[in-house]
Amino acid sequence: LQEIVSVESEEENNGINLMEFSDEILLHILSYVPCTDLVLNVRRTCRKLATLCLDKSLTHTVLLQKDYKVNKDKVKQLMRDIGKEIYQLNMAGCYWLPSSTIDHVTRCKNLVKLNLSGCHVTSLRLSKMLSTLQHLRSLAIDVNPGFDASQLSSECKATLSRVLELKQTLYTPSYGVVPCCTSLEKLLLYFEILDRSREGFMLSGQLMVGESNVPHYQNLRIFYARLAPGYVNQEVVRLYLAVLSDRTPENLHAFLISAPGSFAETGATKNLLDSMARNVRLDALQLPKAWINGSGLLQHLKFNNPFYFSFSRCTLSGGHLIQRVINGGKDLKSLTSLNLSGCVHCLAPDSLFRKAEDDIDSSILESLVVSCCNLRHLNLSAAHHHSSESIGNHLCQLLSRLKHLLSLALPVCSITDVAANVEKPPTASNLVPQTFGRKVRIGIQTYPRNLVEQANQKIESSVFWALMGSLRFLETLEIIGSSFSSAMPRNEPAIRNSLPPCVRAQSVGDSEVAAISQLTYLQSLTLAQLPNILTGSGLVNIGLQCQHLRTLSLANLGMMAKMVYMSALMDMLKHCKCLRDLRLEQPYFCAGTQFFQALSHCSSLQRLCIVSRSGTLQSDAVMSFMANCLEVIMCHMFMGESLTVCKNLQQSIVRSFQAERPALNVVIFPLLHEDLTEVIRDVPMRHLDEITLFKSRVAEEPPNLWW
Questions:
Q1: DSSP tag of 165
Q2: Per-residue pLDDT averaged across 575-593, rounded?
């Protein structure tokens, strides 16, 4: 025994030499290190690492899209050292890099894939760069005001003619480089054109003379268009679709248009859909709700091996869903992603005489679950999906059969236990109106901190508790109130009032949140409009158990006029070592010293967004937090403070930390100020789309739409 102890202690003293591992193991470890660190730092430590860091498996694909510490000089040195070895380069969202940085990409002569979405690229720089990239087959760029296709050289156009995949984000009415891409097989279009210029002039959706009728779609396999709110975006996308309506590509297998609000069908679009029904078999489909509602389109479209469907905000009934889409349970094993967000009648046999709050037909959901047994992403949010009292037919019980689910979005009222909801008398919080009130000083809350104690308090027969237990590999979960709307809309003034939660949702609170802690591999969590949060004790469980959590979004929990879960939230944050993105939306939120001290425990935090009507902040606490959390590069706070207070704090943060954090983006502004929309338009699209604006993101797009 003494010999064994002595040997063990000797091994502990000597430790393990990392360089003794095999090359395969070391390469796997190094694959988790940002490429800039590998090439510029790690390879200079010893000869062995100098060789391994330049291995083709590590230099073939370079990802800079969330390397917030990279700057122009690092990119220049990186391209100089390994430019010829790079075949795929992703610089998406590198908004902080000057446009001259793009000049160094010309060293990557062998590039096949290039993503410059969110980067500052002029027409002339784009022309110069693409002229040297003869092997390029995949390209992603932004088209900003001032873009001029006539400045593209013949060599640039020759490169574009060989491009097979194009992702183009439009901030101005234009075809961009689409007319030059004569071999396109995949076209992704993001329309972010505002209806008014900064000077207040109304914009037109008409394209410049000579740009019409020139896209080449004959080889197109995938067409995707996502529109931001606004009539100009609708006008421009119709011009892109006009060519498609003349001749539908024979190989088209994915046709997707995501449009908010009303996007009316025209004669041209009707001809396009009729042509698609006759000539193509689709694998992915998403259409504006006006194109589907009341039409027999789905009855005529043909599908091959569909992997993605989105009927978001459509009035599609469950009967039509089963008959026309699921086809009686046939050929849907291939479906991996389904978006039924806002589809209020999708789990009912018909929509003619049904109220949105009526119980669902469990047989429709059961048919869906059986037919689409391989679903990985399912969105049922923004609707009232109320289960009946029938034993074994609760929505949560049926969804528990989907063992492959990786992401799930549900309305709050769908997870309540029907029997418990009926028998349980209203709690004190239920009796208090869910409205805004005067500020109330809240003391330190008490709640069970022991996991066993919390579990004992929860009835383990709860259908939601059982659902969470059966979906152990779930990575993304959204539980959103069916009537919830964020106070931070896209292109309108902030919303001042909110609708009350669904009656069925009144009992959903701390115990349901605690059930989520069973999801060991959870990476992203959204909770919005859970009215019965009393202490927030379930949040602590999540912080302790869900150690992989990277994104957390909480909105309007508990009573609207009282931040009753602050103490529990602060306890939770102390355990979230992997948390990178935090979004909080709560009226009367006090962003003070205690909150920021707790948040400072989140050592990996990169982005913070707080939205609070009548909320307050302490400038000194914010500055101290920014000094302690060195990884934070985004701080967005929309509160109830005065414009002067907000501007002074924003300037102080930028002045103190911008030099050390090149990607730093700070927006601190009064939530109800009339100029809020003007401020929002300057936020980098990456932050705006991923965290600042609230939305359901489950099955928002087909999986792996872009690399």
A1: E
A2: 96
Q: What CA–CA distance (Å, rounded) separates 657 from 651?
A: 10
pLDDT per residue as tens digits for the range 597-641: 999 999 999 999 999 999 999 999 999 999 999 999 999 999 999
Alpha carbon of residue 413 to chain centroid: 23
CATH number, domain containing residue 548: 3.80.10.10
Q: How confident is the model at residue 561 (pLDDT cuts 50, 70, 90)?
A: confident
Domain count, the chain: 2
Q: Which of 553, 411, 426 is nearest to 483 (CA)?
A: 411
Going through 481-559 in order, the beta strands assigned E by DSSP cover 524-528, 551-555
What is the average per-residue pLDDT within 647-675? 96
Q: For 118, which DSSP code?
A: T
User: In the listed set 113, 136, 162, which residue is the last one of a domain according to the structure?
Assistant: 113
Instruction: Report the share of the chain in percent with pLDDT over 70.
Output: 89
The residue from 82, 113, 144 where one domain ends is 113
The full 3-state SS of 429-445, as one line of letters, equals: HHHCCCCCCCCCCCCCC
Q: How far is CA 317 from the centre of its chain?
A: 27
pTM, entire model: 0.92
Question: How many CB atoms are closer than 10 A to CB 471?
Answer: 22
Helix locations, 307-401, DSSP H: 318-320, 362-371, 395-399
- The answer to the question of residue 626 being in a domain is yes
**Cα-based angle 104, 147, 135 (whole degrees, multiple of 5):** 45
Helix (H) or strand (E) holding 538: helix 537-545
Place of tokens 């806002």: 342
